[in-house]
Amino acid sequence: MKKLLWLLLSALAAYGAWDLVREVRGAWTSDYSRTYSRAVGQTMSRAFDSLNLSGRGVRIGVLDAGFGGFRTDRWTRGLHVAAWRDFTGGDETAFFDDATDHGTRVCTNLGGRSGDTIRGLAWGAEYYLAKTDRAEVEPRAEERQLIRGIEWLLAHDVDVISSSLGYTTFDDFSGYTPAMLDGRTSSRATSTACSRRAPDSFSCRAPATRATRRGAMSPFRPMSGRSSRSVRAIPTVFPAPAPVVSDAKMPAM
What is the tens place of the pLDDT at every residue in 96-107? Predict the structure, then answer.
């Protein structure tokens, strides 16, 4: 039994070393015309690579709780930020010095690029950044700030809005129920990763009439432990009433 255990541990260690070598050598993208990070390379194909996507001419709006380190992070410092605004009453001159950097990490996935390595396919897009949330508090006013942020982005005629924000409970309000947010009063299409976590009754917070869902797979089992599950598998995951137009599972990052 001990010999079997040692063999298993040795095999796992060898796999880890081999995986690291592949990462360093860029073997994930050796078949493509451009160099991609591992996360993007795992989902790439020759046909997709041949499109030479860059996001040029596209305006992307990002709503988040902070963009700290954006100007110094190697993946985002080269992105073209056309405008930014703080709707929380913070000092806009220190917009990129925020203690919260979640928005920066989102932009890394959207358009991150360092040298020749692409981590986000929209590295040539224009970015419009809006801080509408403070991570340390959750007043209902932040929902109104979110709406103001959306209006500001629409005034800049953005093509797509990315938001990591969703609200169901507040510090000063008991919150919404799934019945209140059934998608029947919404006409927008929503793509959500559902927080990439095992679901509770509210792990998807997007009241939409059409929805796409993304789960994460691990190398050793069909679904990553930190991934959301499909609505088809767990009926309590919100929003069940919305017809699903896409239900894909992506490699865990």
Answer: 999 999 999 999
Residue 82, SS3? strand
Cα 97–chain centre separation: 21
Query: What is the helix (H) or strand (E) element at residue 81, kind and residue range?
Result: strand 80-86
Which residues on neighbouring strands pair with residue 244, listed in sequence order? 211
Task: Residue 201: name the closest of 223, 176, 164, 172 by CA.
Answer: 176
- C-alpha closest to that of 161 among 238, 64, 245, 54: 64
Amino acid making up residue 115: G
Residue 248 has pLDDT above 50, yes or no: no
Give this prediction's pTM.
0.70
Burial label, 123 (beta-carbon count in 10 A; 0-12, 13-18, 19+): buried
- Residue 243: CB partners within 8 Å, gap ≥ 6? 209, 210, 211
